[in-house]
C-alpha cells in the first residue's frame, strides 16, 4: 500500500469516552459554557480534528485558515458541535486502533501539545497552532494502523510506536512514514500551511531547505513527552536530546526542561543536563 492509498482510505478516529460524555452534558445545558467546551474538545485529538476540518472547509469560505479549537468555535455553531459529538459517541464502541493502546496515545498526544504550547510561548510563536500540532501530530500513525494493520503489526514486532527510530524504519519499509500521512491528511482537510509543514517535517525539522519553527517545536516536544512515556532517566534524556534542532531554535536541554508545563507524576524533576550524568 502506498501513501495515496492510505490517504484515500476511510477511517474514523476514536474519541475519549469521558470527554465525549462531559461535552454532551455541557451542550445539553440551557446556557453552555463556551470556555468549558473549548477545554474539553482541546483534550481530544479526534474531536479537534473534526472541528478543524469543518471550520476550514469550503462551507465557511475563509480568507485565512483556522489553527485552533477556540478559533473554530468562533465560527461553528453549537448545533454543529452537538451533531459532531453525538456522531462520535454513537460509533465509539465500534472503533479501535490495532496495536496502539488508546489511553497511551491520548496521554502522549496531550503531553506533546502542552510542551509544544509552552515552547512556542518562549519562542514567541503561535501557541494555539503549536498546541494543535502537538495534539494531532500522530493522526498519520493511526490512519496507517487502520488502513494497513498487518504491515504495521509486523513493524511493531521490531520497534515500538513511540520509538524515536520509528519514522526512519517506516520510511525504509513502506517508502513513507506517519508524518507524510499526517501532513497529507492536513492538506486534504485544508488546514493552514504552517500546520501542514510542521506535521510533515516533525521528524526531521529544518531539512530540505524548509524552515518552519513550529516543526522544530513539535520535534522537541515529542522528545520530551517520549521521555516520560518511556520512563527515561536523566542520562537517557541527555544522550537523546535532539541538539541540532535545539541549536537552530537556540534552545538547549536545560531551557527546554524549564519550559516543561507537565506534572511528570512519579518522576523526579531533573537537574541541569548540559552534560550526561555518569553511570
Key features of this structure:
279 residues; mainly alpha; Hypothetical protein af1432; 2 domains; 17 helices; globular
Topology order in helix (H) and strand (E) letters: HHHHHHHHHHHHHHHHH
Mean pLDDT across the residues is 86
Please report the distance between the alpha carbons of the first and last residues: 45 Å
Low-confidence stretches: 264-279
Give the C-alpha Rg.
Answer: 19 Å
Explain what the structure shows.
This protein has helices at 3-8, 17-27, 34-41, 45-55, 69-73, 78-90, 102-122, 127-136, 139-147, 149-156, 166-174, 178-188, 193-200, 213-229, 234-240, 243-249, 253-258. With 279 residues, it is an all-alpha fold. The chain has two domains: 15-94, no CATH class; 102-258, Orthogonal Bundle (Hypothetical protein af1432), CATH 1.10.3210.10. Helix 12 runs antiparallel to helix 13 and helix 14 crosses helix 16.
Task: Please render the helix and strand layout as text.
Elements: H1 3-8, H2 17-27, H3 34-41, H4 45-55, H5 69-73, H6 78-90, H7 102-122, H8 127-136, H9 139-147, H10 149-156, H11 166-174, H12 178-188, H13 193-200, H14 213-229, H15 234-240, H16 243-249, H17 253-258
Summarize the structure.
With 279 residues, the chain is mainly alpha-helical.
Amino acid at each position: 500500500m502506498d501513501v495515496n492509498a492510505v490517504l484515500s482510505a476511510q477511517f474514523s478516529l476514536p474519541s475519549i469516552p469521558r470527554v465525549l460524555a462531559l461535552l454532551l452534558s455541557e451542550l445539553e445545558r440551557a446556557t453552555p459554557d463556551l470556555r468549558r467546551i473549548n477545554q474539553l474538545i482541546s483534550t481530544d485529538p479526534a474531536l479537534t480534528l473534526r472541528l478543524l476540518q469543518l471550520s476550514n472547509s469550503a462551507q465557511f469560505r475563509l480568507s485565512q485558515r483556522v489553527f485552533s479549537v477556540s478559533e473554530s468555535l468562533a465560527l461553528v455553531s453549537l448545533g454543529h458541535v452537538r451533531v459532531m459529538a453525538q456522531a462520535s459517541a454513537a460509533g465509539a464502541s465500534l472503533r479501535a486502533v490495532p496495536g496502539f493502546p488508546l489511553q497511551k496515545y491520548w496521554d502522549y498526544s496531550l503531553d506533546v501539545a502542552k510542551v509544544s504550547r509552552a515552547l512556542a510561548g518562549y519562542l514567541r510563536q503561535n501557541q494555539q497552532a503549536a498546541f494543535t500540532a502537538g495534539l494531532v501530530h500522530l493522526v498519520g500513525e493511526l490512519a496507517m494502523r487502520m488502513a494497513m494493520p498487518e504491515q504495521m503489526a509486523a513493524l511493531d514486532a521490531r520497534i515500538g510506536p513511540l520509538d524515536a527510530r520509528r519514522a526512519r524504519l517506516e520510511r525504509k519499509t513502506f517508502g513513507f512514514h506517519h508524518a507524510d500521512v499526517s501532513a497529507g491528511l492536513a492538506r486534504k482537510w485544508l488546514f493552514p500551511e504552517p500546520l501542514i509543514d510542521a506535521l510533515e517535517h516533525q521528524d526531521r525539522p529544518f531539512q530540505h531547505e524548509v524552515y518552519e519553527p513550529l516543526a522544530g517545536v513539535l520535534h522537541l516536544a515529542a522528545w520530551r513527552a517520549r521521555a516520560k512515556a518511556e520512563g527515561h532517566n536523566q542520562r537517557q534524556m541527555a544522550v537523546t536530546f535532539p541538539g541540532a534542532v535545539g541549536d537552530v531554535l537556540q534552545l538547549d536541554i536545560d531551557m527546554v526542561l524549564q519550559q516543561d508545563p507537565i506534572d511528570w507524576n512519579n518522576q523526579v524533576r531533573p537537574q541541569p543536563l548540559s552534560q550526561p550524568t555518569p553511570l
